[in-house]
Amino acid sequence: MKLLIILLATGLSLSFTNWQPDFETAKKLAGEEHKYILLNFSGSDWCAPCIRLHKEVFESDEFKTLADQALVLYRADFPRSKKNRLPKELQLSNEALADKYNPLGKFPYTVVMTADGQVIRSWDGYSNNSAQFIEQIKTVCHAGRK
Fold this sequence. Notes:
Blueprint: H1 2-13, H2 23-33, E1 36-42, H3 48-58, H4 61-70, E2 71-77, H5 88-101, E3 109-113, E4 119-124, H6 130-143
Parallel strand pairs: 1-2
Antiparallel strand pairs: 1-3, 3-4
């Protein structure tokens, strides 16, 4: 019984921030919910700054709260390890997104955009300052609501 109570209490405190499975779903949700899209280009199994960005920023409670309120999330991942290879269709979709939004192939590269694809702000890399990065994203989200 104690375990059940602990699991319920932990589950209630968790944020339900979800990274969308594909970009089309992210665009649709952003339009329906009147939110921005946060598109993150990542090398999840080889790019150390990408891994730190996800751990220090995207997994933080502060970011999850912000995302739940103002963002739809999509990660265009480019893993190198064979075991982490994406399905071909998703890989092609991510490559098309990179051609359009990240033509120089920077990692990590993060974009906040409208549901129709208009870029509001982008970040090249990760400065290792999670509080500053989250604050910059908040500023973008709040500026669009005025």
